[in-house]
Amino acid sequence: QVQLRESGGGVVQAGGSLRLSCSASEKIVSTYYMGWYRQAPGKDRELVANIHSDNSTNYAVSVKGRFIISKDIAKNTVDLQMNSLKPEDTAVYLCAAKAPQSESYEIWGQGTRVTVSS
């Protein structure tokens, strides 16, 4: 079974940057839809950004222009570069993967916590 592992979370001051990385246990990054979600305390899980097999990307309105999703097929990783962080970006960030034929993301990592202090 494919496993995803996130890294790179931490505590940062508002205006700062963090880079999250998601490593997959199998070679899926080139063919699967890969996404980053986040869940803040008391809130629903929301899609932050995703990247498709053709390298097209989508971003939540709240992060557009500040976050960049990218993938490295050789390393089998998907990264999320987060700039100009705001306290409202505080959440657990989860990496997810979806096979091309699937309707929803079915593979999830454990998450990495990001805390942005004001």
Q: Number of helical segments?
A: 0
Query: Any idea what the radius of gyration is?
Result: 13 Å
Mean pLDDT: 96
Number of strands: 11
Strand content: over 45%
Q: Percentage of helical residues? A: under 10%
Shape: globular
Quaternary state reads single chain
N/C terminus separation? 40 Å
Low-confidence stretches: none
What characterizes the major β-sheet?
Answer: 7 strands, mixed
What is the N-to-C order of secondary-structure elements (H for helix, E for strand)?
Answer: EEEEEEEEEEE
Secondary structural class: mainly beta
Task: Report what the structure shows.
The chain is an all-beta fold and 118 residues long. The protein contains no helices and eleven strands. Strands 2, 4, 5, 6, 9, 10 and 11 form a seven-stranded mixed sheet that branches. Strands 1-3-8-7 form a four-stranded antiparallel sheet, with no helix packed on it. A hairpin with a 4-residue loop joins strand 7 and strand 8. The chain is globular and about 40 Å long. The mean pLDDT is 96.
